[in-house]
Every structure is written in structure tokens, then in C-alpha cells.
Design a protein that fits this description.
about 250 residues; mainly alpha
């Protein structure tokens, strides 16, 4: 990385010592062949020397560029930049370059001029006025007004019909609820009226009724005996009270 941060002087005498740098290979004049037409031998030698120098500079620049690219990758990695971020930046820069390019600017100007010419042309103005006239005639026509009124009435009728359907459904549900309640009450009364005679004729009910009658007779007899004792004290203890049947 130190070599990447060093400034390379292309005119340095040590530039040919870099790794993988192209070196000058001596070429025999006999192997070179004849000089190109119109060039002297001295001019040819000068051009060949300049060519070797340029090729050597190209190789050096390639090495420097590769080192710079590696250093740039390390900096991006440390900053957390991904290749996708780089792609976005490249696309944004490319689009910006396109927008500021002469071709884009000229095309935009041409399109604006064409738009102005079209909108200001007699044909465009005539077509716009014709469309406006047709729209006004259509909205003022009797057929349009009738159609609009018909649609409005149809919407009102539809709303009224839906409202009526809703009220009918609510009323039906109320009737069904009231009918179910009355049916349950009538069933209870019928079961009650049917069960009462059967309960009265049962042995349990008769036994309970007999016991109630016995208790009643005892209470009434005891009251009568107490009343007789108060009116006739002389015969209070002569006659013992009559005992009824056991409970």
C-alpha cells in the first residue's frame, strides 16, 4: 500500500524498476527491416524511442490505477459501503450526466417548442373549441336531462325500497319473537291446567288434604271446649274432651 500512496514521477530514472514494468528490448537494425517510406533512419529511431517511453508510462499508470482501486475498496469496506450503494451512486451520477448533457438539453428544448407549436396551432384550438361546444350541447340536451332525472329517481326509489325491506324484516322479527313468547306462555298455562286435576286426584294430595282437615277439626274442637268451660264452670271437669282420630 505504500507504493499506492507515493507519487510516481514519470520522468524518474527509476521508473523502469517497478514490478511487471515493460523493459526496453534492444532490436537489431537489420531485424527492423527498411525504414517506412518518408522517414529517415534517425526519425524512425526517435519515434521508436518515444513509443517505448509511452508504453512504459502506460504500464506504470496501470500499476498505479490498480493500487488506487485496492485502496478505494479498503476505504469503502471500512465505511460500510456495499456494492449496491456504489451501483446507486453510479446510476445517479449517470442520470445527472445525461440531464446536463447537450443532447438531453437540446431534446428537451425541442419537445417544449413542439408542444408550444401544437397547443398554439389553429387545428388544436379548433378541436378544443369543438369539443367544448359538444360538451355544452350534450349537457343542455333534453335527453341528457331526462337521463339524469331518471337515474336520480331510480336512486331514490332504490333507497326507499331498501328502507322498506329493512322495516319489514324488523317487523317480522318482532312478530316472530312475540309469537314465540306467547306460545311458551300458553304451553305453560295448558300444562298447568292439565296437571292440577291430576294432582288433586293423587293419593299424596288426598292424604295431605285429610291431615289438614284433622288439624282443622282439632283446632275448632279445642276452641269450642274452652268456650263451654267459661260459660258453665260447674261442669268443667265432668266430661273429658273427645279425642279425635290420631294424626
Amino acid at each position: 500500500m505504500e507504493s499506492a500512496n507515493q507519487d510516481i514521477n514519470l520522468n524518474s530514472p527509476n521508473k523502469g524498476l517497478l514490478a511487471d514494468a515493460m523493459t526496453d528490448v534492444p532490436v537489431d537494425n537489420a531485424a527492423r527491416g527498411a525504414a517506412p517510406e518518408g522517414l529517415t533512419l534517425a526519425e524512425e529511431e526517435e519515434l521508436r524511442a518515444e513509443l517505448a517511453k509511452v508504453e512504459e508510462e502506460i504500464g506504470t499508470l496501470r500499476q498505479v490505477l490498480a493500487a488506487k482501486e485496492r485502496h478505494c475498496g479498503e476505504l469503502k469496506r471500512k465505511l460500510g459501503l456495499t456494492p449496491l450503494d456504489g451501483l446507486k451512486q453510479n446510476l445517479s451520477k449517470s442520470w445527472h450526466d445525461v440531464q446536463v448533457s447537450n443532447a438531453y438539453v437540446k431534446t428537451s428544448e425541442k419537445l417544449g417548442e413542439w408542444n408550444d407549436k401544437v397547443t398554439q396551432s389553429d387545428l388544436y384550438l379548433s378541436a378544443s373549441s369543438t369539443l367544448e361546444d359538444w360538451n355544452e350541447k350534450l349537457t343542455q340536451s333534453e335527453a341528457y336531462k331526462k337521463t339524469q332525472e331518471t337515474l336520480s329517481q331510480a336512486g331514490q326509489k332504490t333507497s326507499a325500497a331498501l328502507s322498506n325491506v329493512g322495516s319489514v324484516i324488523s317487523r317480522k322479527l318482532g312478530d316472530m319473537r312475540a309469537h314465540s313468547i306467547s306460545h311458551s306462555l300458553s304451553g305453560y298455562s295448558i300444562r298447568h291446567s292439565i296437571s292440577m286435576p291430576a294432582m288433586r286426584n293423587s293419593a299424596t294430595f288426598k292424604s295431605f288434604e285429610d291431615r289438614v282437615g284433622t288439624i282443622k277439626s282439632r283446632v275448632v274442637g279445642s276452641r269450642e271446649n274452652s268456650t263451654d268451660g267459661l260459660h258453665s264452670p260447674s261442669g268443667a271437669g265432668d266430661t273429658p274432651p273427645q279425642d279425635n282420630a290420631p294424626f
